[in-house]
C-alpha cells in the first residue's frame, strides 16, 4: 500500500465534488428538453455525456501515478520517520478529482437525457 499523504478534509471535499452533479440532474433533463442540439433533444446530450466520461477515463488511465510521498524501505514498508521522498505528491490529487468530477458530470448528463428519452418513448407506446 502506497501513501500519497492527503489530508482527510481533502478527501471529504473530493467526495462532495463528485456527489454534487447528481443534485443538478433534473436541470440537465430540463436543458435537454429546452435546448435541442442540431434539432435533436436528447441523443446529443447522451453522446456528449458519455464522451466526457470516455475522455476523463482515458485521461486518468494514461497519466502516470506520482511517486509516493514517503519512501519505501528495502522490504517494502513505508518509512514514516524519514523525510518525504516526494513532497509534491499532494499536488497530483487535483487531477484525479478533476477526472472523477468530469466522469460524474458526464454520467449525470447522459443519464438525465436517457431518462428523459425513456419517459418520452413510454408516452408514445399505448
UniProtKB/TrEMBL annotation:
The chain crosses the membrane at residues 12-32, 44-62, 93-119. InterPro entries: BT1. Its main location: membrane. Keywords: Membrane, Transmembrane, Transmembrane helix, Transport. GO terms for cellular component: membrane. It is a multi-pass membrane protein. The keyword Transport applies. This is Uncharacterized protein. It comes from Polarella glacialis (Dinoflagellate).
Amino acid at each position: 500500500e502506497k501513501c500519497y499523504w492527503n489530508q482527510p478534509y481533502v478527501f471529504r471535499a473530493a467526495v462532495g465534488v463528485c456527489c454534487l452533479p447528481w443534485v443538478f440532474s433534473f436541470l440537465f433533463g430540463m436543458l435537454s428538453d429546452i435546448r435541442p442540439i442540431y434539432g435533436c433533444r436528447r441523443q446529443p446530450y447522451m453522446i456528449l455525456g458519455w464522451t466526457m466520461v470516455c475522455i476523463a477515463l482515458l485521461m486518468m488511465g494514461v497519466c502516470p501515478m506520482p511517486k509516493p510521498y514517503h519512501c519505501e524501505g528495502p522490504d517494502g514498508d513505508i518509512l514514516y520517520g524519514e523525510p518525504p521522498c516526494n513532497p509534491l505528491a499532494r499536488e497530483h490529487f487535483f487531477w484525479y478529482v478533476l477526472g472523477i468530477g468530469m466522469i460524474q458530470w458526464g454520467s449525470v448528463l447522459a443519464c438525465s437525457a436517457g431518462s428523459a428519452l425513456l419517459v418520452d418513448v413510454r408516452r408514445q407506446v399505448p
